[in-house]
Amino acid sequence: QVQLVESGGGLVQSGGSLRLSCAASGFTFSTIHMSWHRQAPGKERELVASINTSGRGTTYADSVKGRFTISRDNGKNTLYLQMNSLKSEDTAVYYCNAEERVWPRRSWWGQGTQVAVSS
């Protein structure tokens, strides 16, 4: 069965860095579009960054451009999010998502990892 397991979250001071990982299993990782989302308390889940199957195409939310970098290692079935210059407003639970871009367009979520940035 499909599993997405995030790790790397924690408490960090404003201006610090964290690297999130998402280990994937149960599907052919190299053929699936991947993304990171986050949900802060009292807010809706939002897209942070996405990456295509080859890793050469990426998109970012305006709020994280220039600070976050999404990447993937298809040989290790792992998705990453390097987060630099963290701000208090980055505090949220971060989720890994896998989505098929063709029918039946299934989507899977990880359980999330908490990131807390102290000011």
What would you say this structure looks like, in words?
- Helix content is 0%, strand content 52%.
- It is globular and about 45 Å long.
- The protein is mostly beta strands and 119 residues long.
- The model has no long low-confidence stretch (mean pLDDT 97).
- The N and C termini lie far apart (40 Å).
- The strands form two sheets. Strands 2, 4, 5, 6, 9, 10 and 11 form a seven-stranded mixed beta sheet that branches. A four-stranded antiparallel beta sheet has the order 1-3-8-7, with no helix packed on it.
- The protein is built from no helices and eleven strands.
- Strand 4 (33-39) and strand 5 form a beta hairpin.
Descriptive tags:
four-stranded antiparallel beta sheet, globular, single chain, 0% helix, mainly beta
What's the SSE blueprint?
Layout: E1 3-7, E2 10-13, E3 18-25, E4 33-39, E5 46-51, E6 58-60, E7 68-73, E8 78-83, E9 92-99, E10 107-109, E11 113-118
Parallel strand pairs: 2-11
Antiparallel strand pairs: 1-3, 3-8, 4-5, 4-9, 5-6, 7-8, 9-10, 9-11
Task: Report the C-alpha radius of gyration, rounded.
Answer: 14 Å
Q: How many β-strand runs?
A: 11
Helix fraction by DSSP (H/I, runs of at least 4): under 10%
Give the uncertain stretches in residue-range form: none
